[in-house]
Design goal:
Elements (H helix, E strand, L loop, with lengths): L17 E6 L9 H18 L3 E6 H5 L8 E4 L4 H12 L4 E2 L2 H6 L2 H11 L6 E5 L6 H11 L3 E5 L10 E4 L4 H10 L4 E6 L5 E7 L4 E6 L13 H15 L3 E10 L2 E9 L7 H21 L1
Parallel strand pairs: 1-2, 1-3, 3-4
Antiparallel strand pairs: 5-8, 6-7, 6-8, 9-10, 9-11, 11-12
Helix pairs in contact: 1-9
Amino acid sequence: MTRSYDSPTPHGGGSHPRLVAIYRSPTYSPLQHASNDTAILDETTRWFEEWGYDVHRVGERDVVGGAIPHADLYLNMCQGAAASEVLVPLESTGAPVFNRPTSVLNCHRHRLVRLLDQSGLAFPTTKLVPTSGPVDEHQREEVERLRERAVWIKRGDVHAERPEDVVAVLNGGFSRAMATFAERGIPWVALQEHVPGPVLKFYGVASGGLFHAYVAETKAEPTPDIVDLAVLRRLAFAAAAQVGLDVFGGDVAVPEPSHPVLIDLNDWPSFAPIRTRAARAIADHIHAKFQQGVAS
């Protein structure tokens, strides 16, 4: 395969490949996620430094401001639309960017919901609706049907800037919750039908070099009476492939052990419980993909 940019041999060659690591804006890392998001990229880049890469670090705000240093390889934790859209032309030239900005944009809920709806994967009824203003007849019917059930209301663009970007409405309070989103200037939300059962979180790397899941409430690894781990793994990797992610995480609810249901998917999470192992797996995957792109 021929790249449309000049790349030195990344390992064992005569020059050092230049890597730019792009750190996520604190805007998209609420609470403890800010330090955790920084830590996973720090640990990942250390492997590349050990392998002889020339590593440079910039922030998401630098990218929005137009500061994108030339590099042979990019590690991308940007999550906002503005930075991702700036990076899309870079991706279109064939530059290796992990995660690709188009995949990050696919994780924004107004796109993610449509992609998962079309995928045939286990995904609950989820509808995008405006927080205020007129709705068409079909939307009105969907809202009325969902509001009679337990429902989650999630902001319709990025995953979360603050804890109240995802709220449960289980026993009334639907209208007030919608009004609160509107008052905050969030024009669209995703209404997601509540799925009963334990909630599990998972992390993965597209090569299959890493998959880890745990029960959200207890932090314990799930036992077979909670979930069939092979089924969960297939669901997680299929969802990541659907949106094009190399480094990913997400959440499932499990009404039955053999039927985990995907309730969220996100790009490059913090991997906080398994950071050291995850950093090596991420670095191995990206390093190998980069080598393949140069050598093949």
